[in-house]
Amino acid sequence: MLILAIIAAARADTRLVNISSRGLVGTGDNVLIGGFVVPSGSSKTVLIRAAGPTLSSLGVSGVLANPKITVYNSSGTIIAENDNWSSDLSSTFSALGAFTPHWWLQVPLALLVLGIGHRLVTLPLSWVSGFLLPRRFGLLHQPFRLWLADVAKAGAIATLLGIVATLVVYALLRATAWWWLWGALLFLLGYALLALAAPTLLIPLFYRLTPLQDGDLRARVLRVAARAGVPVLGVWVADQSRKSRTANAAVVGLGRTRRILLFDTLLSELAADEIETVLAHELGHQVHGDIGRGLLVQAALTLGTFWIAEHALRSGTRALGLEGLADPAGLPLFGLVLMGVGLFALPVANGWSRHVERQADAFALRLTGNAPAFIAAMERLGALNLAEAEPHPIKELLFYSHPSIRRRVRSARAFLPQST
Question: Does residue 311 form part of some domain?
Answer without folding.
Answer: yes
